[in-house]
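Action item from last meeting closed. Structure (350 res):
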């Protein structure tokens, strides 16, 4: 599925050749957002915190799409006054992927405040720039629910992870036992605040959020790019950090290229007010291990303990509708994502 050429079911509301801003363009998700936009026929301006360290992005996209299609700009402080005026100037759409919060958040309110400073600044700048027609915010599936093995739950676009917010704020619970619940709480509060901003400010652009779960797939430049969750496939391959992987509860996953295509469709097809789950199929690291064993039968792998199965039912037809809008009939399988993640990492190491 992931290698199906993008073909719009209807003429896009934002014309091909228009300029789209992608923040945090060096990350796993954002780099695939940029890649899919370029493949669709758009131009991309990507922001990074350090342009010199991320120069590989320009060479990667030039090799794929030629000169004058991708522009790299530095935004070292997402919340600095006036920092978005230059990057936003002349763009037709914005994919806001960069975030401030670390996975192990120590202070939820402080992390929310820091994230919102940058996001409100970006949103306000976008509102004042007449060229901007669409804005897509990156949230997280964890903003909707906390994955729990073997616990049935129904998730809809109206779901919010209030459980994480409550537990993260509970002073009677030790910080070390909260795990990533504070990070989940940040995602809830930030996404809600941005929806509130849109309702209050009534900007002239469409606004949608994408809530990806564990993202796996090929790394665009495995020699230079941080692998993020795709790199965990190689932890299994190499028998590294198995304690971390064993503690990773079963949940849902999505191919990085499918994630990129959700952004393309949400940006340019005119949909508005959608929360879009990036959840293709149920996933566990034991399933990933089974795939690696089939793909590399000559290699010995260390087994993981069984930590159950995800039983969340996600009720939304919006994600597949967006994929169909760009010519893709269904999700890329976990098996294909794992194969391609491993292949990209191994080719870089060769």
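Sequence:
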């Amino acid at each position: 599925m992931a290698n199906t050429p993008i073909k719009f079911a209807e003429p896009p509301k934002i014309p091909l050749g228009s300029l789209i801003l992608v923040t945090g363009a060096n990350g796993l998700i954002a780099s695939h957002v940029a890649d899919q936009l370029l493949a669709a026929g758009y131009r991309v301006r990507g922001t990074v915190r350090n342009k010199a360290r991320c120069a590989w992005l320009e060479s990667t996209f030039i090799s794929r799409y030629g000169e004058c299609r991708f522009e790299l700009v530095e935004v070292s402080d997402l919340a600095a006054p006036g920092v978005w005026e230059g990057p936003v100037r002349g763009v037709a759409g914005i994919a806001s992927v960069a975030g401030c919060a670390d996975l192990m958040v120590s202070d939820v309110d402080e992390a929310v405040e820091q994230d919102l400073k940058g996001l409100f600044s970006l949103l306000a700048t976008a509102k004042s720039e007449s060229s901007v027609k669409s804005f897509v915010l990156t949230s997280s599936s964890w903003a909707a629910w906390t994955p729990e093995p073997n616990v049935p739950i129904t998730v809809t676009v109206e779901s919010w992870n209030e459980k994480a917010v409550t537990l993260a704020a509970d002073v009677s619970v030790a910080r070390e036992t909260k795990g990533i619940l504070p990070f989940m709480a940040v995602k809830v509060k930030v996404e809600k605040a941005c929806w509130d901003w849109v309702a209050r400010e009534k900007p002239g652009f469409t606004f949608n959020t994408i809530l990806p779960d564990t993202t796996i797939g090929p790394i665009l430049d495995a020699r230079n790019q941080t692998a993020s969750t795709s790199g965990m496939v190689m932890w299994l391959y190499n028998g590294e950090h198995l304690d971390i992987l064993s503690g990773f509860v079963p949940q849902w996953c999505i191919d990085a290229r499918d994630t990129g295509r959700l952004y393309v469709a949400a940006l340019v097809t005119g949909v508005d007010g959608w929360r879009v789950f990036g959840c293709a199929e149920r996933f566990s690291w034991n399933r990933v291990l089974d795939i690696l064993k089939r793909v590399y039968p000559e290699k010995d792998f260390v087994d993981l303990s069984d930590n159950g199965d995800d039983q969340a039912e996600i009720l939304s037809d919006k994600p597949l509708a967006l994929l169909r809008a760009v010519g893709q009939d269904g999700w890329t399988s976990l098996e294909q994502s794992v194969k391609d993640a491993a292949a990209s990492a191994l080719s870089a190491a060769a």
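Note appended to the action item: Residues 19-229+253-283+313-332 form a domain with the Rossmann fold fold (CATH 3.40.50.720).
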